[in-house]
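Q: How do we represent a protein-ligand complex in a form that can be generated token by token?
A: Start from the inputs.
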Amino acid sequence: MLAVLSNSSSIVSKIRDLARKRNAVILAHNYQRGDVQDAADYLGDSLELSQNAARINTDVIVFCGVHFMAETASILSPDKVVLTPDEDAGCRMADMISVDRLRSLKSTHPDATVVSYVNSTAAVKAESDVCCTSANAVEVIASIEAPEIIFVPDKYLAAYVQTKVSRKIIPWSGYCPTHVKILPEDVQRQKQLHPAAKVIVHPECTPPVIALADDVLSTGGMCKYASRSSAAEIIVGTEIGLLHRLRKENPDKVFYAASDRAVCPNMKTITLPKLLWALQEKKTEVKVPETIRIKAKEALDRMLEVS
Ligand code: 13P
Ligand code: SF4
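Then emit the structure tokens for the protein with 1,3-dihydroxyacetonephosphate bound:
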């Protein structure tokens, strides 16, 4: 145990030294492994990290998250070198929609405004009018005046937003394979075990899970909720990586995973050795072709203006 501890603390100090030397900032999503979260400069949800990427002043951004997150950073900050410690860390939901399929859906609804969830490729964003994240989806969609809205790729986020806005949403049929593992029975079991606990869930969960929640929040929203809430116990319906941050920031509160099966394997492929390697080798750079980047940035900028 001691050997493991000193090993990981020496790798963290190498990472921190090299980040300083390279003038690099390390951004990490809330689902990253606990030790990767602890080595980062900034933690956040997709919106907070993209806002950070847009204003950060370093030469290099090392993005510990899935591929679309690093791509978003590169779209917003093209003059910076954006690195991913694992180029195979993709988002399975983002892969459920392609540009061709989106174009064909658009052709059947020519007057619709196209909203793409930020969990999508740069090419899909470039085919969209505006992006959104789980933190601002309701706000972004409520700001649209078109009678119809195409929403890709998450059908469950679309269904949740549809309960909050009157305009017709035409959803794509994608979903998050991690969040669908959280079942209503899991939440009910945890509620029976911990009757005083509040329940917070991510809007990528299915409608029967959302129906059992006290609040539906992005991962950043969950962190704010936990720090402000007077509840001593909270059941958390999202990827279990968030529990590390919630427990660290709120040592006086108790957090329960709605389901231990909610693990995103791609988020977990990034490790401290890979993060060190990325800084040492300045790899792997994520870069979006300029024609796609400019259009995708317009969709992201519209979102950032609304937020
Ligand atoms: P957040 O933006 O809420 O962190 O969600 C990102 C994500 O990938 C959820 O599965
Ligand atoms: Fe994508 Fe789901 Fe993993 Fe989030 S948890 S990155 S939506 S596969």
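The radius of gyration is 19 Å. The CA atoms of residues 22 and 39 lie 16 Å apart.
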